[in-house]
Amino acid sequence: MPDSAHVYLYGNRILYLSIAAGLFFLLFIVQLVRKRKMSERFALVWMVIPVLLILFSSNRGLLERLAVMAGIAYAPALMIPIIFGLFTLVSLYFSVKASKSEQQIKKLAQELALLRHAVQQTQPAVRDQESE
Amino acid sequence: MSTTGKTARAPRILIVIPAYNEEKSVVRVAREALASAPGVEVLVVDDCSTDRTAAILAGEGINHVSLPVNLGIGGAVQTGFLYAWEKGHDIVMQVDGDGQHPPGQIPHLLAAMREGGLDAVIGSRYAAGSQIVSSRARRIGGGLLGALIRLATGQRVTDPTSGFRAYNRHALEYLRHYYPQEYPEPIIAIDLLRNGFKLGEVPILMKEREHGASSITGLDTLLYMIKVIFAIIIVKIRRRR
């Protein structure tokens, strides 16, 4: 095998692996949605990661241009900060969602407790009315 | 002589007692709270206890609500505030269900609120005239938080972690919307001051808890301090409501 072909093949190995990992991740998310273990809304957020991963991995020209802009000599190494950044953004998004859900659950629990109390207070009166 | 025909009515007071697994002390605390001042009402908020707290309260006929999930001290207390708001109470008090806050001292808080024209009153273990029954670590922690609050608001709060408190309806209107779920006491002190409420302290004597364990113990103390300090900084930099 010529040296240049060897370098190209092994230099691109991380990119092939990234495409494979992206596809696997994408299928895994689709499976979760299909089995109703994840809602479509959240699945779309998660899908951003494998889609961008596949996009950057399959377009070496784009990756190299970005690597030059970022001052990274070895273009595939750019995948590391890209993946890290994407996961960070998705984690932040879900933390915001979790905080909102926490507030909503708290409000629901409080409303339920107060309503149950109100019903228990009125039940004797209702029973008295019924017995008259 | 009044020309309006209206007569001044006594303020309606609700004492909120948050309780989580307090089956040994909550009934006595509730009864003492009821006897502490004429006309006061009591609401025990059972925070999804795993012991017989709810059953005992029901058996004793004590007014209580039971949360379907454990919300923590902040969520439980705020449930009481929502109840007080809906029922039209003028003053709401918080007294812990573990017997640490002597209900006999409730009138001191009410008098301080009335005489000082305050929106919120904290029963302080460390204010001048109080009798301290507390560990040194707890005092140091409280002192540090107090210093932070002073830095942020300019007002001295000697016992920001005390949960023995009274709020008027003006403060209640605010607290029914904004009340932190975890470690609410120091955060609420600074939040109220930053939003223009009048907050004061009254010296009281607190007892060691009779039953149950503190929610702030051992290594948790460090985590507690970090969380509260972070929350105080957030309250300080947040826009006023």
Your description of this structure?
The complex is a heterodimer of chains A (132) and B (241). By secondary structure, chain A is mostly helical. Chain A has one domain. Helix content of chain A is 86%, strand content 0%. Chain A contains five helices and no strands. Chain B has 241 residues and is of the alpha/beta class. Chain B has a single domain, classed as Spore Coat Polysaccharide Biosynthesis Protein SpsA, Chain A, CATH 3.90.550.10. Chain B is 41% helix and 14% strand. In chain B, strands 3-2-1-4-6-5-7 form a seven-stranded mixed beta sheet, with helices on both faces. In chain B, helix 2 links the parallel strand 2 and strand 3. In chain B, helix 3 packs across helix 6, helix 5 packs parallel to helix 7 and helix 7 runs parallel beside helix 8. Chains A and B meet through helix 5 of A and strand 3 and helix 3 of B.
Brief write-up:
The complex is a heterodimer of chains A (132) and B (241). Chain A is an all-alpha fold. Helix content of chain A is 86%, strand content 0%.
From the spread of the alpha carbons, the general shape of chain B counts as globular
Instruction: Tell me the count of domains of chain A.
Output: 1
Low-confidence stretches of chain B: 1-5
What CATH architecture label of chain B applies?
A: Alpha-Beta Complex
Which labels suit this protein?
heterodimer, A: about 130 residues, mainly alpha, 5 helices, elongated, B: about 240 residues, alpha/beta, Spore Coat Polysaccharide Biosynthesis Protein SpsA, Chain A, about 15% strand, disordered N terminus
Write the layout of secondary structure elements.
The complex is a heterodimer of chains A (132) and B (241).
Chain A: H1 3-11, H2 13-34, H3 40-58, H4 60-70, H5 79-131
Chain B: E1 13-19, H1 26-36, E2 41-46, H2 53-60, E3 64-66, H3 72-87, E4 91-94, H4 106-116, E5 120-124, H5 136-153, E6 165-168, H6 169-175, H7 184-194, E7 199-203, H8 220-237
Parallel strand pairs in B: 1-2, 1-4, 2-3, 5-7
Antiparallel strand pairs in B: 4-6, 5-6
Helix pairs in contact in B: 3-6, 5-7, 5-8, 7-8
